[in-house]
């Protein structure tokens, strides 16, 4: 089934029971910890002196986490309602984030504007994702850092992301047109798109659920109306792993 990206125009990004709440409660803590460690501890960047671009920011779930850690964040998304919601929520919590409406395939910035560009939970929704990678590279400074996170195209991701979370009536927690398994991206495919865009991959790590049995039990409780979807994520947080059979994230450096 083709993905329905128009659904994000009606998305309540900050509701603890919305279909994206697993991102904020389970996945976000894992990826912001990993990305912040890569940028500040391993590469040695100082947040206050670095311009960061979030490509496909949605309602600002990850952009706010970067901003809280001191990074100077710009976020772009093609969904104007999502951008308006992101602006309103940032203002509500006192964060200064530059949000703009834009497609990832044509970013409204000059060449080599940003020190860091990241694209998370986005590329698997875009048929021409190599174009987004190339455009991200265009606005990234030479020697700049490209961060990514997406879903692998494997039997495991078909079972979990498609069957368990989207299709099976007794466990379904997200709409059945959020993901199309055929659009999931194998690491070697993404790394090839990065190389074509002059970004050399440095590291790729897997992302798995820390408590898979608890995760399924929590989903069943959610289906019975006993807990929010956000609470499901808090019960079963994502962790960095060597297992890339479901999701993965990593970073590359743009060639000088």
From TrEMBL:
Residues 53-146 form the Methyltransferase type domain. InterPro entries: Methyltransf_11, SAM-dependent_MTases_sf, UbiG_MeTrfase. It comes from the Bacteria. Pfam families: Methyltransf_11. Coiled coil: none annotated. Keywords: Methyltransferase, S-adenosyl-L-methionine, Transferase, Ubiquinone biosynthesis. The keyword Transferase applies. PANTHER family: METHYLTRANSFERASE, UBIQUINONE BIOSYNTHESIS O-METHYLTRANSFERASE, MITOCHONDRIAL. This is 3-demethylubiquinone-9 3-O-methyltransferase. It comes from Archangium minus.
